[in-house]
Design brief:
The protein is an alpha+beta fold and 115 residues long. 26% of the residues lie in helices and 27% in strands. The protein has helices at residues 15-31, 77-89, and strands at 2-6, 9-13, 35-42, 48-55, 61-65. The strands form two sheets. The chain has a three-stranded antiparallel beta sheet, covered by helices on one side. The longest helix has 17 residues, at 15-31. It is elongated, with a radius of gyration of 23 Å.
């Protein structure tokens, strides 16, 4: 479980959710962009809820690990996958080298033969 400090308030959420949110905020900041994202939280009285975070270059977002002292872990795998996909979309593209492929019909040709 992690506690997120944001905009003068604090929220409890799952560790994977919090990590994905921080990574997304960092990716948005690198792009000079912002976005809103809803994440599940547990309020101080233990009730579940959803908080809409605005994250981007000006976000002052801090997380703190609460190893076992905050109750049952909040797990939302589809949300974490979606946030990670959004983060990946913001990553700079890198060229990928393709392996050399022999042109069709040249395999087994002995280039030492005389023409």
């Amino acid at each position: 479980m992690e506690r997120i400090y944001y905009a003068g308030d604090r929220f409890l959420t799952g560790s994977e959710v919090a990590r994905a949110l921080v990574e997304y905020a960092a990716a948005l900041a690198r792009q000079g962009s912002a976005a809103a994202i809803e994440i599940p939280v547990r309020h101080a009285d233990g009730t579940p809820g959803v908080v809409n975070f605005l994250v981007g270059p000006a976000s002052q977002l801090v997380t703190e690990s609460l190893d076992g002292e905050a109750g049952e872990e909040i797990v939302d795998e589809p949300l974490v996958a979606r946030i990670r996909a959004l983060t990946a979309e913001l990553s700079p593209m890198h060229p990928v080298a393709r392996p050399a492929v022999e042109p069709e019909g040249t395999s087994g040709y002995d280039w030492t033969d005389e023409v």
